[in-house]
Amino acid sequence: MSADANKSTTNGYEKPLPSEEQQRKINEVRRLLGLLSGRLSIYCSDASIARHLRAQNWNVKKATKMLKVTLKWRAEYKPEEIRWDEIANEAETGKIYRLNYVDKYGRAVLVMRPSCQNTKSTKGQIRYLVYCMENAILNLPPHQEQMVWLIDFQGFNLSHISVKVTRETAHVLQDHYPERLGLAILYNPPKFFEPFWTVVKPFLELKTQNKVKFVYSDDINTRRIMEDLFDMDQLESAFGGNDRVGFNINKYAERMREDDKKMPSFWAMETTPSEASQPSLTMATSSDSPNLNSDSDTSDHEKNDTSSQRGMETEAVSSDEKGLTIDGSKNIVGEVH
């Protein structure tokens, strides 16, 4: 395993832009997007635009292009309309599920068990992943934008490796859910996983790579890492915790159906403080939508972007006097969608 892969913590730091500079760039992206309608206007909250800007090191042109691609994808794929009964067969084995609690920093937690893969359809697997992402976002507490992935490699073997699914997963995560992943813990990956990681690592952006932590149950630092993140009485015993109940598909299905009922109101058109000053965010027909295929928009402020605005976001898996900080920026602006 490489030195980077063996590190259980990362102490990078990205110097945040002044809040007024962030808001200026957010407003510039919004101007370049033009008129939006319905759910797309709700999606483009200040917080959402800020995530796309952070993913592109606050480069307005690149963030706008990225956001247009996601808006087009959301308009066609309609991820917020996926319901449990449509993807329930993908969930039967517990290969991906959301824990019914958050970590100590308010982030939703998705458990993933590659060895529990029960279907061969890449399309179906990605659709279930998208459902899980939307559900996790639905359940984020106020002022929290990110989630944690706990990937359990118990029972994992070569037959469970799929470069295609991994590539598609990376594409969906990075292109359509930027800055949503706070941390991915690979728990007890086998030694033969190393060459696979070498193959798939180039699919991941550097920021995403640095959010992936290899954790081993026989490592003396493992329990400290998990204790920093979780209430050990709640955490499953598979990850060193004290909960031995585990996944129950029937109970989980009940939870997801209840969550499905909340989704329409989550995406209902409401006037938030950030929207009140934007009269262009009104209902319109699809013909009124901006040209989401265009990537030629440029910002009047692009020439002012400098290399000093680039850097790695904070991903420290260690506690300080204010608590653990994994996402370097705490500048959450507007509603979170």
TrEMBL record:
GO MF annotations, alphabetized: phosphatidylinositol transfer activity
SMART domains noted in UniProt: SEC14
Listed Low complexity bias regions: 285-296
Gene3D superfamilies for this protein: CRAL-TRIO lipid binding domain
Source domain of life: Eukaryota
Sequence segments annotated as region (Disordered): 1-21, 270-337
Ranges annotated as biased composition (Polar residues): 1-12, 271-284
Ranges of residues in domain CRAL-TRIO: 84-247
Name of the protein: CRAL-TRIO domain-containing protein
Organism: Citrus clementina
